[in-house]
Automatic annotation (TrEMBL):
Residues 63-141 form the GHMP kinase N-terminal domain. Keywords: ATP-binding, Isoprene biosynthesis, Kinase, Nucleotide-binding, Transferase. ATP binds at P91, V92, G93, A94, G95, L96, G97, G98, G99, S100, A101. Pathway: Isoprenoid biosynthesis; isopentenyl diphosphate biosynthesis via DXP pathway; isopentenyl diphosphate from 1-deoxy-D-xylulose 5-phosphate: step 3/6. This is 4-diphosphocytidyl-2-C-methyl-D-erythritol kinase. It is an enzyme of class 2 (transferase). It holds the Pfam family GHMP_kinases_C. HAMAP family: IspE. Signal peptide: none annotated. Residues 197-272 form the GHMP kinase C-terminal domain. It catalyses: 4-CDP-2-C-methyl-D-erythritol + ATP = 4-CDP-2-C-methyl-D-erythritol 2-phosphate + ADP + H(+). The keyword Lipoprotein does not apply.
């Protein structure tokens, strides 16, 4: 079985508050993109992972792929194994949900390959216990995600959007960015999510460019100033708007059409090796023929 685990971008990220348990209550618009990691999963006696690419990704027990597979095996009470080979393309610590996408692909893939017939409710609960973005990555497409990632509302998308994603610097740790957010003297403004929802439904990139925004940007930029520079550069190369995704450190440039995105990507790749030309897609995990 060959799968693509798709990255996600945040068109809008609002922080609503901090709960007593320390988690932040969020309201986000997330969408899957074609950029993704490839996974090949074969039945085997042992459970193993072979990793290609992703220099800062743990290849052993710390990898979310193995943690997800083990957790699924325990929950289902089976003793089967699998040989998993993964080619990592999604940049790490980028706010693109790479690890979450890989875990989502493994949960769906092994549920089928091991004939577990586990339903959505059980799979979602298991996914949530591993990471808050994994339930979104299992379904993907365009969704409004609320709470700490458990409330998923499917939304209509009027057209595919053309993007250039750049990671101009080292990755960022999500907890570190939230700590920096909590320490800000002034609460950043939240984006207008309703306006972004309408722009996405209409397939209108210019309206989406006006509405998109990320309340974590003022927390991430002082740690990685290259984020602000990459956003400016993407707009200089023709992006209608460029904004950080998730907690960074990747920046997403939104373009009016495929040609404009392609032109900008050719400029960006000369500056930053981690530059990706991609577009939105309607699924979180896809099966390769
Ligand atoms: P999010 O937006 O969900 O916070 P991210 O895109 O910022 O995620 P990831 O690329 O998922 O961050 O990586 C976060 C950390 O998880 C990394 O430090 C990495 O070492 C670890 N990790 C474990 N498994 C994986 C995996 N399969 N792919 C990427 N990172 C993984």
């Amino acid at each position: 079985m060959r799968l693509i685990a798709h990255a996600k971008v945040n068109w809008a990220l609002s922080v609503l508050g901090r709960r007593d348990d320390g988690y932040h209550e969020l309201d986000m618009l997330m969408q899957s993109v074609e950029l993704g990691d490839s996974l090949e999963i074969r039945l085997d006696e042992e459970l193993t992972l072979t990793l290609h690419g992703g220099p800062r990704v743990p290849s052993g027990d710390g990898n979310l792929v193995l943690r997800a597979a083990r957790r699924l095996r325990e929950a289902a009470g089976v003793a089967q194994g699998a040989r998993i080979t993964m080619k990592k393309r999604i940049p790490v610590g980028a706010g693109l949900g790479g690890g979450s996408a890989d875990a989502a692909a493994v949960l769906l893939g092994l549920n089928a390959l091991w004939n577990l017939h586990m339903g959505w409710q059980d799979l979602r609960a298991l996914a949530r216990s591993l990471g808050s973005d994994i339930p979104f990555c299992m379904v993907g497409g365009l969704r409004r995600v609320r709470g700490t990632g458990e409330q998923l509302e499917a939304l209509p998308c009027g057209a595919p959007f053309h993007l250039v994603i750049v990671q101009p610097c080292a990755g960022l740790s999500t907890p570190k960015v939230f700590a920096a957010y909590d320490a800000l003297a002034v609460r950043p403004r939240n984006p207008d999510i309703e306006a972004a929802v309408a722009a996405l439904a209409q397939g209108d990139p210019a309206a989406l460019a006006r509405a998109m925004g990320n309340a974590l940007t003022p927390a991430s930029v002082p740690i990685r100033p290259q984020i602000a520079m990459a956003a400016q550069t993407l707009e200089h190369f023709g992006a209608l708007r460029a904004e950080m995704t998730g907690s960074g450190s990747a920046v997403v440039g939104l373009f009016a059409n495929a040609q404009d995105a392609d032109f900008a990507w050719r400029q960006c790749i000369a500056l930053w090796p981690k530059s990706y030309l991609t577009r939105t897609t309607d699924r979180g995990v896809s099966l390769c023929p």
